[in-house]
Amino acid sequence: QRAVTKPRYMQWREGISSSTTLGFRIEGIKKADGSCSTDFKTTRSREQVIRVFEEFVQGDAEVLRRYLNRLQQIRDTLEVSEFFRRHEVIGSSLLFVH
């Protein structure tokens, strides 16, 4: 029996999540009521991710719009950054709080 290497495991994990299709994955959510959820390993499609975000913000379209605007600002900043033009981000996390 062969052991699973870390790179192989990471490749498998990305393949079953939205990492491969969308470039990111949801690791966990903690809501204002204190409830936590980390069962997003197979949340893969755009539609599934949208449902998770809608549930997280309890259907508040304004909060979703603000998150989207902020993400666009971050993207715009990174696209003109000399540092990020010459470097690759291997792993990063975003924490959404509202």
TrEMBL record:
Xref: Pfam families: IPK
GO BP field: inositol phosphate biosynthetic process; phosphatidylinositol phosphate biosynthetic process
Transferase recorded as keyword: yes
The enzyme's E.C. designation: 2.7.-.-
Signal peptide from the UniProt entry: none
GO CC list: cytoplasm; nucleus
GO molecular function annotations of the record: inositol hexakisphosphate kinase activity
Keyword Kinase: yes
UniProt keywords, alphabetically: Kinase, Transferase
Record-linked Gene3D superfamilies: Inositol polyphosphate kinase
Highest taxon, organism lineage: Eukaryota
Family: Belongs to the inositol phosphokinase (IPK) family.
Protein name as catalogued: Kinase
